[in-house]
Amino acid sequence: MPVYYVRYKQKKHRRRKRVFFLLFALACVGLSFALAFGFGKGPAAKLLSRPATAGHALPLLTIDRQEQLLININIPVDENDSWRVKDNKLELTLVHKDAIAAFPAEEQYLDQQICFRREQNKVVLIIELDNLPPIFRLSTTAFGYAIQWSEAGLAGKRIAIDPGHGGHDPGAEGHYLRLYEKNVTLAIALELQAMLEKAGVEVFMTRSTDTLVDTTLKPGRHIRPDLWKRHDLVNDYSPDLFLSIHNNSWSDKYARGIETYHNPNSLNSFPSKRAAQLIQNELVAELQRYSRGIKPKNDAVLQVKAPAVLAEILFISNKEEEAMLAEPDFAKSAAAALFKGIAAFFQDPRGE
């Protein structure tokens, strides 16, 4: 066999080996990218099929990150479900028996950053938040839960503002200047609306004029239907945060200060408490009044699905604080404090 032919075969063999190793390297790089972006791209990554429900087979999880990362968890919801952030992990605790049955028998990772653990009569779904955008919103859907991520900051967020009372419901009345709560809350809300919209927020107002939200409610009737009307409108709007603005009042004329409420029994109790604390801090710092702290409450407006806060800004029944509420620049000062608290929330809602 000629020498040049042997050399040709050796070269051809070496070329085949180089091509093989090149293809192997490219495959490894592709696998690395797939792992790095474990939540997948395209319309939706379907993970872990589960039994058909009402004739429709739904995967346990669907993950979509075409624009903003969106995870759908297709399981029955329960009013006793809850969630929190701990050690930079989102922990969603599920208690519905059919939700528990939808998960595999063995604890395992469902995706690169999603796993679960079983506890007594519950399943805890865990999403590792490393390398994910800082802001997320958890809401219910017709099929379970949706978690959508977005970047930090106010731009593009949706916020609902509820100026307390209105129309033939004046709210509390000042003992000295005869100030009406409904007028103070509306003035603050309008100032806040302008500030938020300037920052790129989409704002929904339950009212923008001196009227009840439920305009069918006749004078002399209890205002509870009006509160539930506000609740329903906010749920329909589905904001990233809901804020109800009020002034406090008490029979003790020396009662004073600022307090902010949140609902510890709502699905979004974790971010609601965080938002309440941030707003309380800013109100106290701006207005330089006594802090009565943040407190739990289960009012109708705090039973909305979104993170929700009710701010009681000073006592209209207190002579000194009613005088403050009547000052021309008070509404702007209070709105500035609320704005700062909301902005802080959308920088770090986890509180870690």
Structure description:
- This protein has 352 residues and is α+β, with helices and mostly antiparallel strands.
- It has two domains: 45-150, no CATH class; 158-345, Zn-dependent exopeptidases (Aminopeptidase).
- Helices cover 32% and strands 26% of the residues.
- The chain has seven helices and 16 strands.
- The chain has helices at residues 3-36, 97-101, 181-198, 224-237, 269-287, 319-326, 330-345, and strands at 45-49, 59-64, 70-73, 82-86, 89-94, 109-111, 114-119, 122-128, 135-140, 145-150, 158-163, 202-205, 241-248, 258-262, 291-296, 308-315.
- Strands 12-11-13-16-14-15 form a six-stranded mixed beta sheet, sandwiched between helices.
- A hairpin with a 2-residue loop joins strand 6 and strand 7 (114-119).
- The longest helix has 34 residues, at 3-36.
- 36% of the residues are buried.
Following the backbone from N to C, one meets helices and strands in this order, namely: HEEEEEHEEEEEEHEHEEHEEHH
Quaternary organisation: single chain
Q: Compute the gyration radius: what is it? A: 27 Å
How many individual helices? 7
First-last Cα distance: 75 Å
Mean pLDDT comes to 87
Short description:
The protein is of the alpha+beta class and 352 residues long. The chain is built from seven helices and 16 strands.
Main features:
five-stranded antiparallel beta sheet; alpha+beta; 7 helices; six-stranded mixed beta sheet; Aminopeptidase; 32% helix; 352 residues; disordered N terminus; elongated; 2 domains
